Amino acid sequence: MKVPVTITVNGTPHHAEVEPRRLLCHWLRDDLGLTGTHIGCDTSQCGACTVLLDGQAVKSCTVLAVQADGCEVTTIEGLARDDRLHPLQEGFWERHGLQCGFCTPGMILCAVDLLRQHPQPTEEQIRHGLEGVLCRCTGYQNIIAAVQYAAERLQPATPQKVG
Amino acid sequence: MFPRAFEYQVPGSIAETLELLAADPEETKVLAGGHSLLPMMKLRLAAPRRLLDLRRLRGELAYTHTTDGGLAIGALTTYHALLAAPAVAQRCPLLVEAADQVGDLQVRNRGTLGGSLAHGDPAADMPAVMLVLEAQIEARGPQGSRRIAAPDFFQGLYTTALAPTELLTAIHVPPLPARAGAAYAKFRNPASGYAVVGVAALVALDAAGKIATARVGITGVSDHAYRATAVEQALVGAEPTPEALAAAAAHAADGIDPLEDVFASADFRRHLTRVQTARALRRAVERARAA
C-alpha cells in the first residue's frame, strides 16, 4: 500500500504517494528525474548516492523515501544559487577534484556536511570526513585540495574575534 | 536492489510500538537509523512483513543524560549525536573514540547506538565497548522494563537477549573505576568500515601504579563480542610494563574459534586480535597514568 509523503527537495515541496520499500535514491532519480544522485555500489559503502537530509549527509540508497517524509533533501542539483556555483563545486573545478565525475556529487554533498561540522578542517579531518565516499580515479589528493579551497572561500572575509 | 514489499507504520509512542510488536512479533521489525536492517532487507536476507519506523520516538529516545557518575543514553541516539554530546566526552571518552570509528560520516549521521546493539552484528564496534563499560541494556516489553547486563545481551550471530516483543530503549553506563584509562583499537575492513577485529580495553591502576582492574572486550572475531578473561586475569596485580601487556595480549583469542571470511582467514584474525589487544592495552595504560 502506498503512503503519502511530503518531501521538500532543493527547496520545492513534493507531495507524493510512494511504496514503503522505495529507496530515496530511486525516488529522486526515477520519479523526480534528479539523476545527479548516482547509484554506485548499492550496498551503502561507496557514497555516490549521498544527499543532504535536513542538512546531514546520508546515503540515499540506505534511506527509504518514506523515512524522508517531512524532511528537506538537498541534491547536487540544488547546490548552486542563481547560476553561481557553490564554493565546493567551484573548488572541484579549480583544483581538478574530479576525473570521471561519478563520485563527485556524493563527494561534494558529504563535504558540505563536513564543512558544517568543521568549518576550518585539518587535512586529517577532511580525509576522515570523506571516508564514506569512494573515488576510483585515485583523485583523493585533489579532492582534499578542492575541499580546502572551499573552506577558505566559506570563511567570513574579515575574521571576527570571538569573546 | 530494493527490499521485499512490507507494511509500514510510524508509531507515535513506545506504548503503541509495543502493541504493534505484540500483534505479530515474528514478522515485525523496528527501524531506527536503518543502517543495519535496510542493507539486509535489500539483499533479501531479511524480509519482515511489517516495519515500524521509530522516527516519531526521537523526542523520547534520543538523549544523553548524566546519571550518578555514569551515563544514560537513549536507544535512538545517533553516533553523530554521541560525538557531539559534551556529557559523553566528559564521562566516557572511550565511547567517543569508538563512535568516531563506526562506518563513515554518513553512517554516523543515521546509525543509532540502540539499533546497532539490537542488530547483534558480530563485527559491530559498540558491543566490545559495552562489554568493557559493563553497560546495562534496557528493554521494554509487555511485562514492563528490564535491564540486561552486556555479557548476557550478546548471544550469537545477529542474536541478542532481546525478545521479539521487546524494544531496546536505553543504555546505562555505570561510573568508571578511579584512575582508569580506556582505548579502542580497530582493524577495519577497508570497504565496509566494520571491524575485522576491534578491541576495547579499560585499565585502572592502584596507588602503587599496578593494575587494579583490566577489562578487554573483543568484536569481529567470534560470532558475538566477548570479554577476553584470560587477558584480564593475567593483568590484575601486574606492573603495566610493555612486556606484561604483550604477554597478556597473547591470550586474546584463547578458547575462540575465529571467524573466517574472504577478507581474513582464522589465523590472520587470531594474529590481529593479539596485536590490536596489545595496542588497546598500551593506550589504556597511558591514559590511566594521565588520569
Radius of gyration of chain B: 19 Å
What is the arithmetic mean of pLDDT of chain A? 95
The appropriate CATH architecture of the largest domain in chain B is 2-Layer Sandwich
Q: Structural class of chain A, please?
A: alpha+beta
Mass-distribution shape of chain B: globular
Order of helices and strands of chain B: EHEHEHEEHHHHHHEEHEEEEEEEHHH
Low-confidence spans of chain A: none
What distance separates the N and C termini of chain A?
A: 56 Å
Q: Mean pLDDT across all residues of chain B, rounded?
A: 97
Measured as a percent range, the helix fraction of chain A is 25-40%
Tell me the β content of chain A: 15-25%
Helix-strand blueprint:
The complex is a heterodimer of chains A (163) and B (291).
Chain A: E1 3-9, E2 12-18, H1 24-31, E3 50-53, E4 56-59, E5 72-74, H2 87-94, H3 104-117, H4 123-129, H5 140-154
Parallel strand pairs in A: 1-5
Antiparallel strand pairs in A: 1-2, 3-4, 3-5
Helix pairs in contact in A: 2-5
Chain B: E1 7-9, H1 14-23, E2 28-31, H2 37-42, E3 50-53, H3 58-61, E4 64-66, E5 71-74, H4 79-84, H5 86-91, H6 93-99, H7 105-110, H8 113-119, H9 126-133, E6 136-141, E7 144-149, H10 150-153, E8 154-156, E9 159-160, E10 167-173, E11 180-188, E12 195-205, E13 211-219, E14 226-227, H11 229-235, H12 242-249, H13 266-290
Parallel strand pairs in B: 1-3, 2-3
Antiparallel strand pairs in B: 4-5, 5-10, 6-7, 6-10, 8-9, 11-12, 12-13, 13-14
Helix pairs in contact in B: 11-12, 12-13
